[in-house]
Write a structure and sequence with these properties.
334 residues, 6 strands, 44% helix
Length: 334
C-alpha cells in the first residue's frame, strides 16, 4: 500500500519542511511551569484510542542495538519524540534532548508516564527508584554505584510490600494532584493505581501482564552488539539525566494517533515556535497499525527537522533500525 501512495499534499508539506531551516534562536525555557506543562498535555492530546495489546513495559529486546550508530552524529539538544513506555528513557538519556514528547494512542500510557514522573521525583538515586517503582524495601548494603545487574539481582530477592505500595501510591497521587496541580479525573486516579499495582504484583524479573515483555531486569541489563548497556538505569549519570528532565517538566506525555489531526502537529508547532529541531523520533512498529498513511506522512512532514533527524523503528522480527526523516517524507513514506 505504501508504494502506491502519491499525494500532492505530501510534496507541499515537504516544501514547508525544507523551508523551516531559517528559524531564529531557541526560546525554550529551561523548565516548564506546572500550569504550562498541564496545558500542553491537555490541549495537545487527542481522545483516548484503542490498541489491541496490553503494553506496560517494552517487549523490544533490540532497542539498544541502534544507539552506537545513532550517536555517531552529535544530537545533544533539540527535541525527542517517542511512543510507548520506559525504552524512551534510555533513548533520552543517550540523546540528551532539551525536551521530549511521548505520544501514544492510549491514555493509559500517558498516565503511566505521569506515574513515572512522580516516581522519578520521589527517587534520589537508581536504587531508590527501583524500590519505589516495584514497592520493595531497599536491600541493605546495596551501594549507589552498584552495577544495574547487581541492583536487580538484589531486588529479585526482596518480597513485594503491599503496605509500602499503598504509601507510595498516596505519594504519587499527592505529587501529581497537590504539588503539581494536575487535574486528574477519578478515572485517571483509578488507572494509575492499577498500573502501579501491576509493578508490585509482577516484580523485577517477569512481567507477564505486559504483551511479550521479557521483564524489567532483562530490559535494563540488555546491551548493544558490542556489549555496552545504555539503559537509563545502567549508570547514575543516565538516571540523573532523565530525572532532571522529569523534575523540570520537560518529558511531556500526550495522547495521540500518529495519523491524527492534533498531537504530532501541535507538538511540532510548539517546537517551531521555540526554534527546536526534532533530532529523533522513536516510532517502534506503530506504522504496522496506521491506516491513514498520507495523514501520517503529513504529520511527520509538519515537524521541524533537518538532514540529521532520524526515525527509530522496531519490527516484530525483533530488529531495530534507523532511517532519515527527510528521506522518508521526500519519498512519500516508501
Amino acid at each position: 500500500m505504501r508504494l502506491r501512495i502519491r499525494s500532492a499534499c505530501i510534496t507541499a508539506a515537504f516544501v514547508v519542511l525544507l523551508s523551516a531551516g531559517s528559524r531564529g534562536a531557541e526560546t525554550l525555557p529551561a523548565q516548564l511551569p506546572d500550569a504550562e506543562y498541564w496545558k500542553i498535555v491537555s490541549d495537545f492530546s487527542e481522545p483516548n484510542g484503542y490498541f489491541q495489546y496490553e503494553i506496560v513495559t517494552s517487549n523490544e529486546t533490540s532497542y539498544q542495538s541502534v544507539l552506537p550508530d545513532l550517536m555517531k552524529t552529535p544530537r545533544f539538544g533539540g527535541a525527542y519524540l517517542g511512543v510507548g513506555p520506559e525504552q524512551n528513557f534510555t533513548y533520552i538519556a543517550a540523546l540528551q534532548p532539551k525536551i521530549a514528547f511521548i505520544i501514544d494512542i492510549r491514555r493509559d500510557m500517558l498516565l503511566e508516564h505521569l506515574m513515572y514522573k512522580a516516581v522519578f521525583e520521589m527517587s534520589a538515586d537508581r536504587v531508590e527508584f527501583v524500590s519505589n517503582l516495584f514497592s520493595r524495601k531497599r536491600p541493605a548494603q546495596l551501594s549507589l554505584d552498584a552495577p544495574v545487574q547487581t541492583i536487580f539481582e538484589a531486588y529479585a530477592r526482596v518480597p513485594a510490600d503491599r503496605t509500602l505500595a499503598e504509601e507510595h501510591l498516596k505519594d504519587i497521587l499527592t505529587r501529581l494532584k497537590t504539588t503539581h496541580h494536575f487535574a486528574l479525573t477519578t478515572e485517571d486516579e483509578s488507572r494509575i493505581r492499577m498500573i502501579y499495582m501491576d509493578f508490585l504484583r509482577e516484580g523485577v524479573i517477569s512481567f507477564s501482564s505486559s504483551f511479550m515483555s521479557p521483564g524489567y531486569a532483562a530490559l535494563m541489563t540488555m546491551t548493544d552488539r558490542s556489549g555496552k548497556n545504555w539503559s537509563y538505569l545502567a549508570s547514575t549519570e543516565n538516571y540523573e539525566r532523565v530525572r532532571t528532565m522529569q523534575q523540570k517538566n520537560l518529558i511531556v506525555p500526550l495522547v495521540g494517533d500518529f495519523a491524527g489531526p492534533k498531537a504530532i502537529r501541535m507538538a511540532g508547532q510548539y517546537l517551531k515556535d521555540h526554534a527546536i529541531t526534532v533530532n529523533a523520533f522513536y516510532i517502534s512498529n506503530v506504522e504496522d497499525y496506521i491506516r491513514m498513511w498520507p495523514a501520517y506522512i503529513g504529520n511527520v512532514a509538519s515537524l521541524p527537522i533537518d538532514a540529521s533527524s532520524t526515525l527509530i523503528r522496531w519490527s516484530p522480527s525483533f530488529s531495530t533500525s534507523l532511517s532519515s526523516m527527510t528521506d522518508f517524507v521526500r519519498a512519500g513514506g516508501r
